[in-house]
Amino acid sequence: MADQIIWVNEQIDPCGIVYSCIACIDEQQAQACHASFKANLSEEQTAAGWVAQIRQVQSWEDVPVSALKLSY
Questions:
Q1: Can you tell me the distance from the alpha carbon of 67 to that of 56, in angstroms, rounded to the nearest whole number?
Q2: What are 24-46's pLDDT values in tens digits?
Q3: What is the distance between the terminal CA atoms of the chain, rounded to a whole angstrom?
């Protein structure tokens, strides 16, 4: 699908390495996943520079290979 939005959730460590990644096409599911990723970062991880981010891509080819792909 050309105009499909794919939501990519990532937890990234201080070195910029993706620790976990989930991709899906359902925005509600993606927002719930993002909230969970943020909530699961400890205060120590956040202080050390860990981040939870959500972003959009237009193609499954733009999703990291290691991602769990939901709704595919």
A1: 14
A2: 999 999 999 999 999 999 999 99
A3: 11
Residue 23 has what pLDDT? 95
DSSP assigned state of 51: E
Q: Which helix (H) or strand (E) holds 31?
A: helix 27-39
Pairwise CA distance, residues 43 & 61, whole Å: 33
Does the pLDDT value for residue 2 go beyond 80?
Answer: no
Q: Could you list the beta-strand ranges (E) of 1-72.
A: 6-12, 18-24, 51-57, 68-69
Distance CA 2, CA 40 (A): 33
Residue 3 burial (CB count, 10 A) = 5
